[in-house]
Amino acid sequence: MTAATAKPLGHIAAERISAGCYGALVSASTLIGLGGSDLGVVVAVVALTNVVYFATHVFAYSVGDTSSERPSRIVAHHLRVSAPMVSVTFLPLLVVVVLAGFGVDLSTALLWGVGVAMAYLVVVATAGARLRGYSGLGVVLTAIGAALMSALLIVAKLLLH
Q1: In sequence order, what are the residues at sequence separation of 6 or more whose Cβ sits closer than 8 angstroms to the Cβ of residue 25?
Q2: Which of 40, 89, 129, 151 could cross-link to 50 by cystine, CB 3.0-4.6 Å?
Q3: How many domains in the chain?
Q4: With contact defined as beta carbons under 8 Å apart, do 24 and 121 qualify?
Q5: Does residue 55 sit within a domain?
Q6: How far is the C-alpha of 80 from the C-alpha of 16, rounded, in Å?
Q7: Per-residue pLDDT tens digits for 114-131
Q8: Over the stretch 130-143, which tens digit does the pLDDT of each residue have?
Q9: 51 falls within a domain
Q10: Domain that holds residue 36
Q11: Long-range pairs, 149-156, Cβ under 8 A, ≥24
């Protein structure tokens, strides 16, 4: 698929990709600061933080929506398309819980959770660039940008703890 032959990325797909990227960033950023916590606190704080960000995202997008639909339909739409913001939290948390369950130090497990969230960001951002019909160079630059952002978050995690 080239930029000339690519189907345009639909608005709903673009919103879902954006929400997934945003959720991955929120998850990773939250995991970064929880090195001194116990596992139950990590799970609760990361899940609650993503749900709060999800709710504020849905609120803000619903208020700013310019469609002529009824408000309840607008909110329902944004609840649906923003769901990846919350679902992206599951795998990084599962990695942290499983590793901790196998006796891995929580700080190390958190680093792995951050890595999983950032890998998700790179994959989704790169796929989004491809679906938008970016050139090969554009897709590579998107992947590099997402990887650099991920590396910066991981370095921040290592410097904080």
Answers
A1: 117, 121, 149, 153
A2: 89
A3: 1
A4: yes
A5: yes
A6: 9
A7: 999 999 999 999 988 888
A8: 888 889 999 999 99
A9: yes
A10: 11-160
A11: 149/25, 149/118, 149/121, 150/28, 150/115, 150/118, 150/119, 150/121, 150/122, 151/118, 153/25, 153/28, 153/29, 153/32, 153/114, 153/118, 154/111, 154/114, 154/115, 154/118, 156/32
Closest CA to 51 of 13, 90, 16: 90
Residue 3 lies in a domain: no
Are the C-beta atoms of residues 31 and 50 closer than 8 Å to each other?
A: no
Sequence-distant (6+) residues with CB within 8 A of 65 are 74, 77, 78
Phi and psi angles of residue 8, each rounded to the nearest 5 degrees, phi first: -65, 140
Q: What is the Rg, in whole angstroms, of the alpha carbon atoms belonging to the chain?
A: 17
pTM: 0.83
